[in-house]
User: Which sequence fits this backbone?
């Protein structure tokens, strides 16, 4: 006699078998938000206040422009990564063991970003060293963008997304995530030859991805006809 037969005779309903390990996404989201918050906060610690004995404070502040540049690039890049991560988790219905580990790998590169940021701000006046730091920085951004895409495509393929999610919405999100890979690869190539131009491209990519152009256009159209 099987367990199901015994359940039927005893009047109990058989327990449904779980096809795979799954968890709610709340803890993954909370942990991820904490890592993003810490990483983006660490960036500002590199901005130093000129010494009190400094006679020309304005000049001293201007001399720190590589630090400001590196800060804004990294802040915008982490901000964009957080926005994409937030969009993904908004569509997730649950997570599994593989997705959790992919998410940890993404957070690894997010938490490392302050290190190459420090390298850029330190070596941007050294031709040889700045090339290494810019390429390392770009590879870090490429890894973040790539893993974000991997997480999303894995979640879709394993049906971890909400069942009420529209196919057009899923395709739109994939289209938002994927193109940045090519952009970062091009910026790394440019940075290998012209390091400062590469940093400028990283900033341009982050700002472009942060600005919600479609939402702004819809807002203007709606208020223009109002």
Assistant:
């Amino acid at each position: 006699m099987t367990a199901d037969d015994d359940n039927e005779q005893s009047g109990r309903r058989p327990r449904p078998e779980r096809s795979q390990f799954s968890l709610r996404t709340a803890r993954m989201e909370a942990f991820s938000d904490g890592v993003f918050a810490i990483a983006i906060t660490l960036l500002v610690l590199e901005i130093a206040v000129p010494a009190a004995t400094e006679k020309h404070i304005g000049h001293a502040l201007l001399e720190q422009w590589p630090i400001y540049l590196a800060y804004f690039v990294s802040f915008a890049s982490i901000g964009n990564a957080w926005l994409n991560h937030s969009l993904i988790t908004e569509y997730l219905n649950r997570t599994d063991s593989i997705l959790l580990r992919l998410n940890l790998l993404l957070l690894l590169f997010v938490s490392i970003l302050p290190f190459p940021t420090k390298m850029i701000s330190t070596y941007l006046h050294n031709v040889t060293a700045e090339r290494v730091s810019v390429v390392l920085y770009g590879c870090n951004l490429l890894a973040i963008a790539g893993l974000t895409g991997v997480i999303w495509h894995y979640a879709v393929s394993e049906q971890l997304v909400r069942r009420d999610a529209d196919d057009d919405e899923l395709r739109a999100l994939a289209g938002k995530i994927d193109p940045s890979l090519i952009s970062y690869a091009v910026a790394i190539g440019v940075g290998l030859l012209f390091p400062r131009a590469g940093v400028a491209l990283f900033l341009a990519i982050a700002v472009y991805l942060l600005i919600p152009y479609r939402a702004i256009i819809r807002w203007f159209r709606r208020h223009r006809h109002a």
Q: What stands out?
A: Residues 90 and 218 are 22 Å apart (CA to CA).
